[in-house]
Design brief:
mainly alpha; 7 helices
């Protein structure tokens, strides 16, 4: 069960770019909920719930996966990407289908950019113990990406 949840139902076991695959579900949830014209507060609550649930999975279950693999940050753990990507869409409320698609694309690309680049303090946050170190850098990358998305929304 821990492998299933930390890998976002197996996405973390995909052979190429598991972190990228782990970032996709929150983007799809955001896009679908927005396209269904859900109120922005409802979308915020759902994205917050995803971020909290994925964070809890990461912190509570990652230590066992770390023990199994012997790696500090096993690539199959993508619950951290799920949590970080969900942070990006907490306070976005696009109006049109065009804005929804653009927001989804920019939010996804910005998160992946910051997750891979790891600007300060992301890289430093990886030094936190166990599941916290796996999670914290992605949450910070999500905050950076959310700021970029907010700026981009001003021009859409």
């Amino acid at each position: 069960m821990k492998k299933l949840l930390t890998s976002c139902f197996g996405l973390g076991f995909l052979p190429f770019a598991p972190g990228t695959w782990g970032s996709v579900p929150p983007v799809l949830v955001f896009a679908v909920l927005s396209l269904l014209d859900l109120q922005s507060i409802s979308i915020t609550i759902i994205m917050f719930g995803i971020a909290v649930a994925a964070s809890a999975v990461c912190v509570l279950m990652s230590p066992d996966i770390i023990s199994l693999t012997g790696k500090k940050d096993p690539s199959q753990i993508v619950a951290d990407e799920v949590a970080g990507q969900a942070i990006v869409f907490l306070v976005i409320s696009p109006c049109s289908t065009y804005q929804i698609l653009i927001c989804s694309a920019i939010g996804f690309a910005a998160f992946r950019f910051f997750d891979i680049l790891k600007p300060f303090p992301c890289k430093k946050l990886e030094n936190l113990p166990s599941g916290w170190g796996i999670l914290a850098d992605d949450l910070m990358a999500g905050v950076y990406a959310a700021i970029v998305l907010q700026i981009c929304m001003r021009f859409l």
